[in-house]
Amino acid sequence: YMTLQDYINLSQESINSFFSNLGPVVANIVAAAVILLVGLIVGSILKRVWDEILKAINLEKSLSGWSSYQRLAKSHDDLTITTLGGELLRWLAIVVFLLPAVAALGVSGSSEILSKLLNYLPNVVLASVFLVLGFVFSWFAHRLVMAVAVLVDRHPSHLIADVAALAIAIFATVEAFLQLGMSTELIRLLI
After folding, report:
1. How far apart are CA 172 and CA 176, in angstroms?
2. pLDDT, tens digit (0-9, with 9 covering 90-100), for 28-70
3. SS3 77
4. Distance CA 18, CA 22 (A)
């Protein structure tokens, strides 16, 4: 049987152990928060500097004369070279500071997961390029088939053009899935 003094000693040991283990954890969390806060501040400063540099050289005014730039700016509410570049710089700074912040937490494997995620981003970008180009070529093929079909006076021209566009879109989608590392068996199931 345990005596009252044994219970008191056990409680004191448990409390001491808890607080001795809590100190380093809290210090790691505070260090990670400070590092991340510095990254947010640096990112905001870089974005602000980018904005001021582009305002000083009047880049937006120069680009506003281009019709393709005007269409791009109209298609998205706040998409300009200034905002796109500024956001890119801001997030780049945040990611650069995120790596040491995660390392400061001392969680095993977290930096490997983050670096795997960052190494996967080029695959996502390349898959997106496949999709965009695929749908552009798909649109072009649809228009081309429609033009040729009208010239030769074929009645099912819409169907033929739709099939051509769909074939190119499916090919681009499959290539994008392969770029993302999806297995061929899973792609066969989807198609």
Report:
1. 6
2. 888 889 999 999 999 999 999 988 888 888 877 777 777 776 7
3. coil
4. 6
Please report which residue ranges of 81-156 form alpha helices under DSSP H: 81-105, 110-151
The pTM for the full model equals: 0.58
Residue 153, judged by CB atoms within 10 A of its CB (0-12, 13-18, 19+), counts as exposed
Torsion, Cα 42 46 51 57, to 10 degrees, reads: 150
Q: Which of 80, 52, 78 has its CA nearest to residue 66?
A: 80
Say how far apart CA 75 and CA 68 lie, in whole Å.
11
Helix (H, G, I), strand (E, B) or coil at 34: helix
- Per-residue burial over 109-144, b if 16 or more Cβ lie within 10 Å, else e, is eeeeebeeeeeeeeeeeebeebbeebeebbeebbee
Element (H, E) at 2: none
Tokens of 137: 């070529």
